[in-house]
Each structure stands twice: as structure tokens, then as C-alpha cells.
Amino acid sequence: MNRNTGAAVYVAGHNGMVGSAIVRRLTSLGYVNIVTASHSELDLVDQRAVRAFFEGNHIDQAYLAAAKVGGIEANDSSPADFIYDNLLIEANIIKSAHDFGVPRLLFLGSSCIYPKFAHQPMAEDALLTGTLEATNEPYAIAKIAGIKLCESFNRQYGRDYRSVMPTNLYGPGDNYHASFSHVIPGLLRRFHDAREGGEDKVVIWGSGSPRREFLHVDDMAAASVHIMELDREVYQASTTPMLSHVNVGTGSDCSINDLASAVAKVTRFTGRLTFDNSKPDGAPRKLMDVTRIQALGWKPTIDLEDGLEDAYAWFVSHQADFRGR
């Protein structure tokens, strides 16, 4: 392992769910020089601003956790925003990191890079073997571009830029917007509001049959730092120049129906669960093959029940932040 707690480590997106978890993890491990910049200080879509930031800061490692994210409804209603903003963020940071000599970078992608009907569990070599899920295709294409940017700078310039592909993430710092959140925060808020409002049922998008894998964000942060700290030779031995990314997940999944029941238990909602079949299900199943990351010495430590309790406790303590949204 290559741990240098005195290194200057830039975390792009440090105020987001994943970025803030990475900062927590780095801090707990004794890193003392964590570099951050809020959106008001640095607009990552602005190429000149990003280049000036890298020129003015000596960065040893960069975690690219910044992204425009959202659930099915957000992706479906704003496809241009999702592909444009994410392409620019990735291109600006990765190119500036190269130009200003950042030795090591970790790009965080998404499981949506894999084809809608990929063989389950989805191994890294499923990338670009089929059609993407239509509802989040623009976002997925941007994430694929990020992987290929890292691969291309490695191949052409000998850089050590790595990529991790997390499964569905949840936990403290998540987005609990009433319309534009992912499945777990969306369900937690919906069940909480229903209980608080005395409602007798909660309506859930889709059939409830799709199966999804979920990873607590603190596990994701631990995996990200683990991959970043691996010696170059160890990491490269597990990948190829044309297949450089590593899946991060739990290796197990559950149906949306079962997830909704678990959320109802956590939020103490005792009413009925109904499903709206007119709404899209998305991919029928999304389970990661985690053979590679397990061989590299990492496994998750937070099970779904404990993770949901933690996520719900965070929401309850921050729900005023989401009032009216």
C-alpha cells in the first residue's frame, strides 16, 4: 500500500455525498493536507477556472467525485444537462491534472455504464457490449467518457489515473428532493412524510420487481481510498490498458419491493405499499461482479439494514434542509 498522509489530496465534489465521505475517510486515516473548493470558489464546468486552480495548487492526488447526479425522473427530464455538465467536469479536471503533473487520480463512475441487459452479475468487461438503459443514457455516456479519458492518458502519457464504478449509493449527505432523488433517499422521504402526514399508503414507481444492489457511501469511500493507495504495479496487474476500471459493490441485491418493505420498517410506516406500473422500471437487474476488488483486498462492512438506519437518522436530523423541495 502507498499511504502518504502528508500528500496534497484534492477532493472534487467534497460537499456532495461521496466527496464528503471520502474527506471523512481520509481524515480518519490521518491525511492532513486535504484540498477542497466549493462551487462558489471553483466552477468545474469552467475550463479556465479549473486550469487556474490546478496551476495554483500543487496536487499529489485527486479524487474526481464531482458530478451532476439524479434519479430516473431527473435524468429523463434533463438529459442535455446531465451529459454536458458531466463531460465538462471530467474533461476539465482530468486534462488539468495531467497538464499540471498530478501523479495519481481516481475517477468515480457509475454502474449505469453497463448495458441494460448485461449478464448478471456485471463484470468490468461488460462495458460497451450492448445498449444502455434509455432513461439515463446521457449520464452513462458521460461516465464512460471519463473512464476512457483516464485510460487514454495512461496509454499515451503513462499516467496513473484509475476508475472505480460504484453500485447504487446511499447514506449521509444524500439528496432527499421530493422529485429528483435516487431510490433509497426517495423512499425514505416518501415513507417518512406519509407516516408524519397520517397517510395509509405509499405509491412506488414501477412494478417493484427490478433488483438492485446498494452500497453505503462510507463503504464506497473506504473502497476509493483503498484503490487509490494500492501500489501502481498491484493495480495495473488487476486491469488492462483498455479495461482499467474496477467495480465497487456488495455482490448481493434485493428487489425494489423488498427494499420498500425494509424502508417502511426503518421509518415505522405501517400503511400499505402500492406500485404504479405506468412508471418505468429501468433495468430489470443491476448486480456488480466484485471479484476484482475483492482480489485487491477490499470488502464492504455495512449491511443494508444498518445502512438504512444510518441514512434515515441523517435525514431526520437534516429534514429542515429539504422542506419545500
UniProtKB/TrEMBL annotation:
The active site is at 139 (proton donor/acceptor). Substrate binds at residues 190, 205, 212, 281. Pathway: Nucleotide-sugar biosynthesis; GDP-L-fucose biosynthesis via de novo pathway; GDP-L-fucose from GDP-alpha-D-mannose: step 2/2. Keywords: Isomerase, Multifunctional enzyme, NADP, Oxidoreductase. Residues 9-233 form the NAD-dependent epimerase/dehydratase domain. Its EC number is 1.1.1.271. Belongs to the NAD(P)-dependent epimerase/dehydratase family. Fucose synthase subfamily. This is GDP-L-fucose synthase.
